[in-house]
Specification:
With 193 residues, this protein is α/β, with parallel strands linked by helices. The chain has a domain at 3-136: Beta Polymerase, domain 2. Helices cover 23% and strands 23% of the residues. The chain contains five helices and nine strands; from the N terminus they run H-H-H-E-E-H-E-E-E-E-H-E-E-E. The strands form three sheets. It has a five-stranded mixed beta sheet with strand order 1-2-5-4-3, with helices on one face. Strand 4 and strand 5 form a beta hairpin. The longest helix has 13 residues, at 33-45. It is elongated. Mean pLDDT is 86; it is low at 5-18.
Length: 193
């Protein structure tokens, strides 16, 4: 296996070491003194670009154009080693704003971090798919369902809906069309349950 393959081998399956992380615990239980040191290290390095939210227990990237540099630091710094992108979730903030939440875990150092970026709908968030290959499909899903645009993504196109689908169904102001290519789109799905 080449060094490049070793670098990304954790992307092929859920790492066994990640079982120490319990996603059902509250963030307060996960945020330990060790995590506070992680936050401090990142904030010291990127004072002008990140902000810690005590309420949300996560870091907010204030300057999206620096996200690639910050992500590279999270991935490659020996004291951080965030080698596992657990999840990338897009969310709609209304008023023409979108957000992306990144949940990261270090399988070797056993610490967790959530990073969020909130931008106007027109602003592109830099893709991190070159660092965490799992981000490729996560970013495509956020684009498909919410309209979050990722700059430098290797293949940014719809992943769940057909290419000619209009709109982004998880946006709060989305209105389900009556028809798609001449077929009725069911609005009442209670009978499916």
């Amino acid at each position: 296996m080449s060094n490049k393959d070793k670098k990304h081998s954790f992307d092929l399956a859920t790492p066994a070491d990640a079982v120490d992380y319990d996603p059902l615990k509250s963030k307060e239980q996960v945020i330990s003194e060790k995590s506070i040191d992680v936050f401090k290290k990142i904030i010291d390095k990127f004072k002008e670009s990140v902000l810690f939210s005590d309420e949300k227990k996560c870091l907010f990237v204030q300057k999206p154009e620096q996200w690639n540099e910050i992500a590279d630091y999270l991935f490659n710094n020996q004291d951080l080693k965030f080698d596992y992108l657990m999840c990338l979730s897009g969310y709609d903030l209304m008023d023409n704003k979108l957000g992306v939440a990144y949940n990261l875990y270090s399988t070797s150092l056993k610490h967790y971090l959530e990073v969020r970026i909130e931008v106007d709908c027109e602003v592109e968030v830099p893709s991190i798919s070159s660092l965490w290959r799992t981000a490729n499909w996560h970013e495509r899903e956020a684009y498909d369902l919410l309209g979050v645009k990722f700059s430098n993504h290797p293949d940014l196109k719809r992943i769940l809906l057909p290419e000619d689908w209009e709109g982004h169904p998880l946006k709060k102001d989305y209105e389900t069309p009556d028809f798609y290519n001449g077929m009725p789109v069911p609005k009442d799905k209670s009978y499916w349950e």
